[in-house]
């Protein structure tokens, strides 16, 4: 005898909710209809445990392509950056004649697996698994069923799925060059991490790669990094605290802040110390966070190209779909350039 198929009613009964509520959760309408987070999590977890699979299309052999792409992200609606990434993916899908289905997991691995399975049930031609911040991810089993691309993420274990990532090493090189070309070779301090590979926040791929690029250019130019202040979180509060501590013992000529929110805090600490940017201290950041354009002077920063990342991931996936998985064997990493956004926060050092 074959395995008895798990029904929606089974999931509802085991979750202690109505069939209607279970259906709304598993079709992605829980938040829209104000179903509690606890009920949503319970239904999704139960569905995963019981092996429930929605079958939205008739069973049978797949005929041709559906011209649809699944996009599963840990963050969508709650971040402007994520919105840019999704917009890039949507636009690229449209240009190639595909429709994009978007699902948000909220960082919950159970929800993520359920969404990946749901994309398969809908006969999506391929799936983009996206992360808001560059990190290592456990690849859901359902992602092995067809063409897939990891966006802003690297796999925790070996997989044939290619990754599309921002070129963080080149970003570090670019930031260092901005300072070196302005004449800075002494009194340079890092805020947020470094100088060693181990002196970074946990699971921060971006920090390690930015530091590698910075070290490469500073070393080649003979520029000296005077100190580095590790921060457990890259927030304005930690940027302020690290810079204030630095100023108690040293007078920096330039600060390399590992992200723009740290730079915002550094600006406040410099102002409290009576120092001006860039007349007294040059400051450069990373990511081109919206906060960068609110700072005075406008922060010079190396931008994360969220729109381009989303578009590139879909382009890579479409190419895989069109060649039906044929191509290079083994994991491939595509690096998307991070451009410098010029502001007024870097100048030649005084004296």
Automatic annotation (TrEMBL):
Pfam families xref list: LacI, Peripla_BP_3
SUPFAM superfamilies in the cross-refs: lambda repressor-like DNA-binding domains, Periplasmic binding protein-like I
Classification via CDD domains: HTH_LacI, PBP1_sucrose_transcription_regulator
Keywords carried by this UniProt record: DNA-binding, Repressor, Transcription, Transcription regulation
InterPro entries (alphabetical): HTH_LacI, LacI/GalR-like_sensor, Lambda_DNA-bd_dom_sf, Peripla_BP_I
Ranges of residues in domain HTH lacI-type: 6-63
Record's protein name: Transcriptional regulator
């Amino acid at each position: 005898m074959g395995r008895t198929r798990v029904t929606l009613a089974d999931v509802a009964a085991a979750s202690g909710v109505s069939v209607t509520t279970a259906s709304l959760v598993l079709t992605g309408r829980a938040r829209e209809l104000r179903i509690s987070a606890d009920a949503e999590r319970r239904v999704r977890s139960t569905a995963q445990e019981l092996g429930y699979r929605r079958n939205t299309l008739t069973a049978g052999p797949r005929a041709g392509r559906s011209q649809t792409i699944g996009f599963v992200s840990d963050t969508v609606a709650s971040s402007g950056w994520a919105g840019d990434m999704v917009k890039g993916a949507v636009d690229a899908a449209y240009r190639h004649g595909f429709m994009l289905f978007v699902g948000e997991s909220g960082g919950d691995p159970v929800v993520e697996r359920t969404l990946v399975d749901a994309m398969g049930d809908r006969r999506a031609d391929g799936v983009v698994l996206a992360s808001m911040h560059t990190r290592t991810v456990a690849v859901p089993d359902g992602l092995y069923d067809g063409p897939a691309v990891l966006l802003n993420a690297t796999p925790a274990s070996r997989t044939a799925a290619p990754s599309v990532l921002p070129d963080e090493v080149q970003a570090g090189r670019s930031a260092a060059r901005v300072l070196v070309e302005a004449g800075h070779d002494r009194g340079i301090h890092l805020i947020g991490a470094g100088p060693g590979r181990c002196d970074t926040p946990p699971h921060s791929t971006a920090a390690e790669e930015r530091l590698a690029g910075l070290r490469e250019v500073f070393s080649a130019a003979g520029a000296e990094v005077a100190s580095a202040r590790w921060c457990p979180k890259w927030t304005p509060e930690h940027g302020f605290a690290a810079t204030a501590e630095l100023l108690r013992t040293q007078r920096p000529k330039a600060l390399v802040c590992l992200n723009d929110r740290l730079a915002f805090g550094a600006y406040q600490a410099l102002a409290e110390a009576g120092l001006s940017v860039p007349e007294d201290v040059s400051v450069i950041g990373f990511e081109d966070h919206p906060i960068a354009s609110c700072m005075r002077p406008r922060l010079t920063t190396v931008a994360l190209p969220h729109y381009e990342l989303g578009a590139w991931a879909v382009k890579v996936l479409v190419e895989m779909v069109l060649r039906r998985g044929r191509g290079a064997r083994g994991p491939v990493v595509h690096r998307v350039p991070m451009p410098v956004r010029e502001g007024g926060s870097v100048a030649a050092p005084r004296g």
